[in-house]
């Protein structure tokens, strides 16, 4: 397999190949036979390309047949895309061979390859694939036999072309060898030039290999020191540039993973604390609320107002305890398949009935189904829509966009027309007790993120189409979700 264009290996091969070519040219110059050697070398390369492409064509047809066979074996259309890729490769190689055909016989062989290739493609699309999907075994068997005949014919023609091209290589090699033995005397005259050229190759290798490797080494050293913001320039077009890009992606993934680990540890610590003391706190809070409400029946004036404040603060404490409990048990409960459109509309209706939306216009668009714990998912959606409505303010707009993701999961993006989230606050949005509002416990988004992660998903924050914040709940496909909830 040849190195890909622009790779470091190819650069090295080209550099050292150029040195060899210079010594070969020295022999040609010495006997004034450069033209013959150049033409012969060119024809050798062209013939080599033709041989390789003829053999690659035979291989590509085998790949096309393999995907055809997989379609039969699997009994579905999962290999249609791969068949199309193989077919495209066969078409490209056939076109190249047609352009390189030297005589009428070779052109006739290529035309035969094209005809059988077209027939094989039609047979697959129009007969075999429909028969496989329809479970028509008789038609599948018949179509498979005809397909095998077409593949055999194409391979036979491709191999015949390869043998013919290989024969021409032998004649060109004999011609080059005939002039080579008379050109040795002049080779020494160009040794000095070859030395200078070797110096140039060394400089070229230093710039294209040594410098990128040094940058990678420096970046790795900074990463080892704990600098997760390390980035390496990706301007090199070869594989070292791709390696730098992979290094940068790895560093970014490591930084993100570390941030997630810190966040998870925070949530775990809060959850352990909540599990230990929440019930003990709830009991005295319930007693306090009970006595306050009894006293409110008899109190008047300033005392009644003071008791109302005590009640509000006690209720606020209860809400904080409930939030802590939610952090400690985000993944409890059975799952079932839910229609996201209906669930979101129900959440909006409940908020509207509770007068939590005010004069905010809320629009719900799209549809998808997802496996989730109904109460937990409603809790997440209610929190996201409520936060968006509060950010949008009276007269504002909230959009809830539901969509199925390419991996089979689903997304719910809640956008508002509010002021958005400050960049310095965005990384702390899902931390417990962090809030940008004057009221609230700072647990809503932390609990929502914990519930999303318990479902195998995640909530992400960015700027939405309405100019304000957008919180996107990403939920996994069914299989991943079930593994996450097991």
Write a compact overview of the structure shown.
Its EC number is 2.7.13.3. It comes from Myxococcus fulvus. The chain has helices spanning 8-30, 34-74, 80-100, 104-133, 137-180, 191-224, 239-298, 301-328, 340-353, 374-392, 423-426, 444-454, 478-485; strands spanning 336-339, 361-365, 369-372, 397-404, 410-416, 458-463, 469-475.
Describe this structure in words.
It is found in: Membrane. The chain crosses the membrane at residues 186-206. GO terms for molecular function: phosphorelay sensor kinase activity. The chain is an alpha+beta fold. The chain has 2 domains: 7-204, de novo design (two linked rop proteins) (Up-down Bundle), CATH 1.20.1440; 333-475, Heat Shock Protein 90. It is 69% helix and 8% strand. It has helices spanning 8-30, 34-74, 80-100, 104-133, 137-180, 191-224, 239-298, 301-328, 340-353, 374-392, 423-426, 444-454, 478-485; strands spanning 336-339, 361-365, 369-372, 397-404, 410-416, 458-463, 469-475. A hairpin with a 5-residue loop joins strand 4 and strand 5. Helix 4 (104-133) packs antiparallel against helix 5 (137-180). The two termini are 45 Å apart.
């Amino acid at each position: 397999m040849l190195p890909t264009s622009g790779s470091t290996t190819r650069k090295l091969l080209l550099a050292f190949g150029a040195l060899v070519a210079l010594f070969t040219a020295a022999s040609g110059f010495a006997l004034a036979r450069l033209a013959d050697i150049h033409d012969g070398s060119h024809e050798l390369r062209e013939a080599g390309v033709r041989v390789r492409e003829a053999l690659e064509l035979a291989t590509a047809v085998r790949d096309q047949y393999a995907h055809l066979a997989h379609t039969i074996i699997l009994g579905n259309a999962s290999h249609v895309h791969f068949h199309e890729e193989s077919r495209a490769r066969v078409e490209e190689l056939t076109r190249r061979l047609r352009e390189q055909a030297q005589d009428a016989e070779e052109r006739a062989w290529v035309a035969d390859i094209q005809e059988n290739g077209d027939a094989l493609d039609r047979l697959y699309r129009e007969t075999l694939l429909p028969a496989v999907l329809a479970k028509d075994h008789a038609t599948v068997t018949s179509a498979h036999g005809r397909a095998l005949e077409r593949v055999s014919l194409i391979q036979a023609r491709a191999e015949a072309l390869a043998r013919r091209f290989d024969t021409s290589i032998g004649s060109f090699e004999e011609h080059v060898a005939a002039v080579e033995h008379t050109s040795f005397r002049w080779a020494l005259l160009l040794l000095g030039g070859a030395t200078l050229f070797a110096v140039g190759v060394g400089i070229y290798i230093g710039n294209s290999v040594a410098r990128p490797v040094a940058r990678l080494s420096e970046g790795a050293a900074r990463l080892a020191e704990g600098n997760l913001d390390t980035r390496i320039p990706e301007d090199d077009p070869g594989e070292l540039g791709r390696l730098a890009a992979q290094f940068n992606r790895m560093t970014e993934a490591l930084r993100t993973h570390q941030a997630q680990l810190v966040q998870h540890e925070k949530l775990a610590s809060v959850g352990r604390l909540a599990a230990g003391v929440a019930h003990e706190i709830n009991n005295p809070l319930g007693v306090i609320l009970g006595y306050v409400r009894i006293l409110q029946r008899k109190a008047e004036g300033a005392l009644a107002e003071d008791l109302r404040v005590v009640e509000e603060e006690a209720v606020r404490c209860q809400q904080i305890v409930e939030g802590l409990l939610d952090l400690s048990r985000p993944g409890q409960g059975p799952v079932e398949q839910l229609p996201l459109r209906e669930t979101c509309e129900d959440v909006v209706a409940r908020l509207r009935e509770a007068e939590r939306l005010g004069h905010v216009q809320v629009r719900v668009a799209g549809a998808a189904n997802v496996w989730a714990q109904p109460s937990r998912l409603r809790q997440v959606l209610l929190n996201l829509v409520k936060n968006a409505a509060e950010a949008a303010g009276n007269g504002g707009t909230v959009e809830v966009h539901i969509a199925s993701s390419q991996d089979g999961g689903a997304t719910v993006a809640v956008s508002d027309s509010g002021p958005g989230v400050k960049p310095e606050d965005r990384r702390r949005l899902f931390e417990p007790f962090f809030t940008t509002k004057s009221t609230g416990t700072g647990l809503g988004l932390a609990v929502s993120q914990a519930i999303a992660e318990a479902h195998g998903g995640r909530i992400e924050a960015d700027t939405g189409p309405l100019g304000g914040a957008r919180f996107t709940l990403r939920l996994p496909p069914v299989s991943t979700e079930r593994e996450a909830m097991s």
